[in-house]
Amino acid sequence: MNFDLHPEQSKSGAAVLCEGISRAFTGAGLVLDHITFQIQPGEFVALLGPSGSGKSSLLRLTAGLDRADEGRLSIEAGQEAVSRGFVFQEPTLIPWRNVLRNTTLPLELQGWETDKAEARAEEELRRVRLVDFAARYPHELSGGMKMRTSVARALITRPNLLLLDEPFAALDEPTRHALQQQLREIWTALGMTVLFVTHSISEAVFLADRVIVLSQRPARILLDSAINLPPARTAALRTSLNYVQEMSRISAAVPIPEANA
Amino acid sequence: MNPNARMSSLLPPLLPLLVSMGVFELAVRSGWVPSYLIPAPSEVVRSLIDDRLELAMAGWTTLSSALVGLLLSFSAGTLFAIALSSSDLARRAFYPYAVFFQTVPIIAIAPLLVIWFGFGQPTVIASAAIVSVFPIIASTLLGLKSTEPALVDLFTLYSATTRQMLYMLKIPFALPQIFSGLRIASGLAVVGAIVGEFIGGGGLGSVVDSARTQQRIDRVFAAVLISALLGVVLVGAVNFVSALTLGSWHTSERKP
Asked: H helices of chain A, where?
């Protein structure tokens, strides 16, 4: 596939240090139980766990949208300021803004001039192959296009930490596969740190270089393992023996929900 | 819409009207219903034609009072709702007083309005504003409180200021509810204006009042017809602005 990537804009990734993080919610009780892990700058890490295990809660903490009850979470990007991009489970687009203006939103909130923000947005839309749809409104887009807009919006601030919360879960399989490959290529080109939350073992293994498996609630880390696959993730990889072996190794660690779950 | 399609969409509401008018005409002319209770539709039409100038002037006075009252209640109600939406404490402290405006019988406090504002238009405007303010507060507040949580997260993530959150997210998101409050309020503003005119004088309210004392029941009906028309015009104007504003994005205004 021929994507218009801009390796010259690569930015070093941020490092994430999560030390003994715990979080409880009224009603739900303890959700995260002393979670400790470290992510190196530029790593692509998948956070894998059953539904309701607290993956999203952990991601929200990392995004600064919530505070931990206990523990320490620090994000550092060396000389640069930490800049986060977030892709939600739903595309979370603003219905009265077209694709271009949805993409410029983070820059507008930071006080950028419209011309400059739009020029940058066009670049990001070209990256996700949506530049021809810039004038469309969200209700005129397919599910995959909405999600690509959401990814372009997350990339527009050139984040050194990209956080994704099961972004492709609602898409059909061919679209999901295409977007997974596209995300991997964007990461290869830009080199930011990626933390990708998913409940799909195949998705985690295909995308990430390292997988952290969480237990059922209250979440603890069951496995933290590198994925032994080549850096280039192509469609052919999905049917390779290596991929299947890595999937079965990881799935052995993933807790099986109880029958009545 | 072609002429045939327009006709077939107009026919269902027109048919019952024409039939009932025909029945009333027959009932009054044959003496089954005394004309001092219900006028023959032809009498009402004659009154509309004969008194057209006076009715048009009165209608214009009522419409302008209702419009000014609506503008007042819209600006005050929206600002009040924005203030209430900013904190739970403010909402708990002041919302009950907003409910007061809905439950207060306007006919009972209209004499007070005359004492405060004197006879004439200010009393009429105040009456229209008081009657129409609650739906605006309630709908705007509901709209401002129902912003999609993920969008609030998105704005928080990019450190949006309170002002950006309000103008770029919460108010646009609340627009469909704001318009639906405005639709209800615009009908009520006409009712409020006419009640105000009963006491404060002028407009269709005075026409109805004086026609009633003169036993001119046909004129009462003609004035009531005009006032209903004013309500329809105001609601239509709100619908027009709503379609212009929300047309490109909101399901309620999207063309199939």
From this structure: 55-63, 99-109, 114-127, 143-155, 173-190, 201-207, 241-251
